[in-house]
Design goal:
- This protein has helices spanning 7-18, 30-33, 37-47, 49-53, 83-95, 99-118; strands spanning 3-5, 22-23, 56-60, 71-74, 81-82.
- The chain is an alpha+beta fold and 119 residues long.
- The chain has one domain (3-118).
- Strands 1-3-4 form a three-stranded antiparallel beta sheet. A two-stranded parallel sheet has the order 2-5.
- It is globular and about 40 Å long.
């Protein structure tokens, strides 16, 4: 399995954070805030796989791009970036030694922290 960073998703997350579309939540909240399979399917049906891809910081090039399994490291709820989602992605990317994704997520996390300190 070769997972690489999804640059479009990274750019999308940066834009969302810059425009205030984020949630500063607790580290352990991702299991509650992560979209369910039903929500994912409804989002894909309404918006298509291209939009679904923007919410995942990694892509697995050994999986079909028209399947959800192609997309890894979700970071939001299809509306906002979630701090807990970024932290979960950062941890998993580090464990699996996907350093490009880990660094990208660390950058996004840093952006969130900077926004939080501004308020």
């Amino acid at each position: 399995m070769t997972v690489t960073m999804n640059q479009k998703a990274f750019d999308h997350a940066r834009e969302l954070i810059a425009s205030g579309q984020y949630v500063i939540d607790d580290r352990d909240s991702w299991s509650e805030h992560q979209p369910s399979a039903r929500q994912e399917n409804a989002f894909i049906e309404q918006h298509g796989m291209g939009e679904y891809a923007k919410w995942h910081l990694g892509v697995d090039d050994q999986q079909d791009p028209d399947r959800k399994e192609h997309y890894k490291f979700p970071y939001g709820d299809f509306e906002k970036v979630h701090r807990c989602g970024l932290l979960a992605a950062e941890s998993r990317a580090g464990q699996r030694k996907y350093y490009d994704i880990e660094l990208a997520v660390a950058h996004l996390h840093g952006m969130l922290e900077a926004m939080r300190l501004r308020v």
